Amino acid sequence: MRLFIAIRFSQETGSKLTGLRDEVRLHSQRGRFTTAENLHLTLVFLGECDERQTAAVRSVLDEVRFDPFPIIIDRVGRFQRNRRDIWWAGVGENEALQALQLDLTERLLRAGFSLEQRTYRPHITLGRDILTNFPPWTIQPLVDRVHTVELMKSEQMEGTLTYTPIYSKPGNAGQRGTKLQNNDSKDPSDS
Ligand code: 2AM
């Protein structure tokens, strides 16, 4: 199956991203636009994986540790592709995101995966094959928080591109934060 590791957003951010997608659509003569439920930020694209490889990705996710971190989406931009541009919502500079992406990539490479080693440019694809004269623009920043990364399966279901989460890896700071709170409140069961 075709797999990738991604971040998905809160419902609120999702509906704002849908609004951005609709703005691009409004200004386009042509394009294939991402459905609301498919909007996501890819961390690592794995491609076709068999059962053994899928288990190996799950093990890598089990090993990874990260603290939940904020993410800011601050612009709408494009990758130019000879009049078939990809339009996306772009993520502002984010050390925690870059570190998590690098950590995952290095672990997967050590586990034997061959990955594309392109510079990571975090983006949320809003549409493909887009023809428009409209220029990219900056937006009122959308702020969300990354609590979880997900292993996603990509497949065509009855002619529709469908992404399904198949494994979920939560960040660890929430749990640690809860423990600290318990310590602060001097819960007798802590000692
Ligand atoms: P894109 O939206 O920029 O195409 C599922 O296809 C996800 O993996 C998408 O977010 C896609 O990014 C990303 N991806 C990265 N490299 C890819 C590749 N070589 N082929 C297909 N998808 C890729």
Would you identify the CATH architecture?
Alpha-Beta Complex
Q: What is the domain total for the residues?
A: 1
Poorly predicted regions:
174-191
| Rg of Cα set | 19 Å
Number of E-state strands: 9
Order of SSEs: EHEEHEEHEEEEH
Helix share bin: 25-40%
Give the C-level CATH assignment. Answer: Alpha Beta
Q: CATH superfamily assignment?
A: Cyclic phosphodiesterase
For the biggest β-sheet, the strand order reads 2-6-5-4-7
| Silhouette | globular
Number of contiguous helices: 4
Report the span from N to C terminus: 47 Å
Task: Please tell me about this protein's structure.
This protein is α+β, with helices and mostly antiparallel strands. It has a single domain (2-179), classed as Cyclic Phosphodiesterase, Chain: A. It has helices at residues 11-26, 51-63, 95-110, 173-184; strands at residues 2-7, 28-33, 41-48, 69-79, 85-91, 123-132, 137-146, 148-157, 160-170. A 5-stranded antiparallel β-sheet has the order 2-6-5-4-7, covered by helices on one side. The chain has a 4-stranded antiparallel β-sheet with strand order 3-1-8-9. A hairpin with a 2-residue loop joins strand 8 (148-157) and strand 9. Adenosine-2'-monophosphate binds at residues 4, 42, 45, 86, 116, 125, 154.
